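To illustrate the input format used throughout this study, we show a single complete record. The first block contains the structure-token representation of the backbone; no residue identities are included at this stage. The design step must infer an amino acid for every position from geometry alone.
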């Protein structure tokens, strides 16, 4: 009886194959699928690592906003220090990596939590390494040169806008001319030229005061085109963005 049932089941399988004209898939198709899943899984981990390296870079550059007396509300400082855009990116790429790795051939041996935590750990470890190697700074420079000003200022690096609030004593720009009387001209992100007065004591950190340097100043506006700097610091995230040509024109096309 048992043999009869086995033969009957086998006959049904053969009949199904012949009826639907089914044929076994070649081995290469399974390999291709597996390699594709791994490729996108690894790519997602790498993109997550880049996101984390930029989170560290922006956070380290903005940590002085808490201890320094540069004005700004709690939320302005919070949004300038905590790069929400890159945190979301990290979460998205980590989840994509998890989905891809979960569908690999041997992933069933591990729990979903283990796969997810491993992806997060790898992204954090690799992102920290990229930051220490200076990759995050180069990546920010690349984005500052090429991403539309509206998206760069509002999402990728909100610290640019934080330091572009002259009415509240914050001015960022590129030095265009240096005078002999402890003053220099800078061009801000709106392409406006400012005459900045300073004292030697104003340069609190390592700043190369020369033509072409991207800087940020804290002080007070004394007229429509003059600014007195109490503290002068280098502009790290956003330095290449400040050097872009046509920033004002491109920005206002999308943000009238």
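Output of the design step:
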């Amino acid at each position: 009886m048992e043999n009869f049932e086995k033969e009957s089941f086998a006959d049904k399988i053969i009949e199904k194959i012949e009826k639907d004209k089914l044929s076994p898939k070649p081995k290469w198709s399974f390999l291709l699928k597996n390699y594709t899943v791994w490729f996108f899984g690894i790519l997602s981990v790498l993109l997550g690592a880049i996101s984390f390296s930029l989170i560290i870079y922006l956070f380290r550059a903005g940590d002085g906003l808490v201890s320094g007396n540069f004005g700004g509300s709690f939320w302005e400082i919070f949004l300038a220090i905590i790069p929400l855009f890159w945190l979301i990116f990290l979460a998205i790429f980590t989840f994509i990596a998890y989905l891809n790795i979960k569908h690999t051939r041997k992933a069933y041996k591990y729990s979903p939590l283990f796969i997810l935590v491993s992806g997060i750990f790898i992204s954090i470890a690799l992102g920290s390494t990229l930051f220490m190697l200076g990759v995050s700074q180069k990546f920010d420079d690349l984005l500052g040169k090429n991403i539309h000003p509206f998206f760069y200022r509002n999402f990728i690096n909100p610290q640019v806008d934080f330091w572009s609030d002259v009415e509240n004593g914050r001015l960022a720009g590129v030095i265009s001319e240096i005078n002999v009387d402890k003053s220099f001209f800078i061009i801000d992100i709106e392409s406006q030229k400012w005459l900045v007065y300073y004292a030697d004591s104003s340069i609190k950190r390592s700043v190369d005061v020369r033509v072409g340097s991207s800087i940020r100043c804290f002080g007070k506006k004394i007229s429509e085109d003059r600014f007195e700097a109490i503290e002068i610091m280098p502009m790290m995230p956003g330095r290449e963005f400040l050097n872009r040509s046509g920033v004002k024109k491109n920005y206002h096309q999308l943000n009238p």
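Structural context for interpreting the output: The chain has two domains: 27-133, 161-254. The longest helix spans residues 27-62.
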